[in-house]
Write a structure and sequence with these properties.
about 65% helix, about 130 residues, 5 helices, mainly alpha
């Protein structure tokens, strides 16, 4: 929570909103953030391959409707959980992904998907 870290994130998030508004309905395509953002070089010395926010990066890549659908699906799924371990672990990963790029790391995203699969099995949605 250093001031520079927060200021940088605000700049990345602002850039994401600007980019997403250029193609709001369908985005620029899955995996396109790095190319579209120019590696997010927002100012001299400030560069990132990720948006530092999973929902905002998805809005750039799949558009606002797709990102909203994804977030609503995940929230609806998380609300069905009765197991405190599953809900706590999924919420921790999801909450961290809102403010950082953790869900853009394949290994962490895989763990998140496995937790979601366990939630689906536990709620008998599968």
């Amino acid at each position: 929570w250093l001031p520079d870290s927060l200021a940088n994130r605000l700049r990345w998030w602002t850039e994401c909103l600007r980019l997403a508004s250029q193609s709001p309905w369908v985005g620029f395509g899955p995996g396109s953030f790095e190319n579209v953002s120019g590696a997010a070089q927002l100012s001299p010395g400030l560069r990132s391959l990720y948006a530092h926010s999973f929902p905002l990066q998805e809005a750039v890549q799949i558009g606002f409707p797709g990102a909203a659908f994804l977030i609503l699906f995940l929230v609806q799924l998380l609300l069905k959980v009765r197991d405190p371990f599953l809900s706590g672990s999924a919420l921790a990963l999801f909450f961290h992904g809102i403010f950082d790029f953790s869900l853009n790391i394949y290994g962490i995203f895989l763990v998140f998907l496995l937790i979601l699969a366990l939630i689906l099995v536990a709620t008998k949605c599968l």
